[in-house]
């Protein structure tokens, strides 16, 4: 199996999910309806729902995905999209997934309300799963999002930020939802408690690797892959793994960031310095470490040779690395 074929394992279910998302968040107010339709028509990687479905298929009896699994996949994408709407307002990002952001189309008030509405809708559908353990697990994610944003806001342009702080922030902003989605899927499959926790750990490491690679792409990636301008995080003072690794080698980069890119050419210069340092390589190595940690948690695919979804979960790390 090639990494790009992973999503094909659950392709039919993802196509149904894409159709369901817009109807699930249908709103009475035309502005909210238009905002929601705009968000979901933009697409995206659908990584989180794909993980829910892959975990479901690899852990369920006869590799069947239940209606509850499919609903959890939809909920995970709604929560993720709601967080992006709020992120775009905070970061003043004008494009996302290659299209204009909600606040750039309307205004900040509409964008915040649209994000709140999506969080509310996800909570309602989550409650209707009638599984208290899943509700508790996924609900904690929304708290984590807020924690991550507060942490990021406090440490903007802070060159004394540690790698531990970066990993913690990345967990709250990205890995928490991925970890909880994997665990929630395992819960719906009625796995024993220890196995549920193992899928949580798998999702946590996959989520951290995904965020680190995304942060590398912010420096080197094309606008097409990112769906937003290159260097957006850097410009906003969000210091990520490649930047933190590069800072230890470059007093000039430290000076530029500490002065918050006071000159028009500073962003370009900072990116050049990061390219010339070992920061990008060290960041990729860190992502690979988390992918290896995730793979050690999964059951041995050789012991379950016919489980295509399990094989897909093992290949996901390679898919993430191939985004660079």
TrEMBL record:
InterPro entries, per the entry: Isoprenoid_synthase_dom_sf, Polyprenyl_synt, Polyprenyl_synt_CS
Family membership noted in the UniProt record: Belongs to the FPP/GGPP synthase family.
Extent of the signal sequence: none
Entry keyword Plastid: yes
Gene: preA
Keywords attached to this entry: Chloroplast, Isoprene biosynthesis, Magnesium, Metal-binding, Plastid, Transferase
Pfam entry (one): polyprenyl_synt
Gene Ontology MF: a single term: metal ion binding
Protein name: Prenyl transferase
GO biological process per UniProt: isoprenoid biosynthetic process; quinone biosynthetic process
Cofactor needs: Mg(2+)
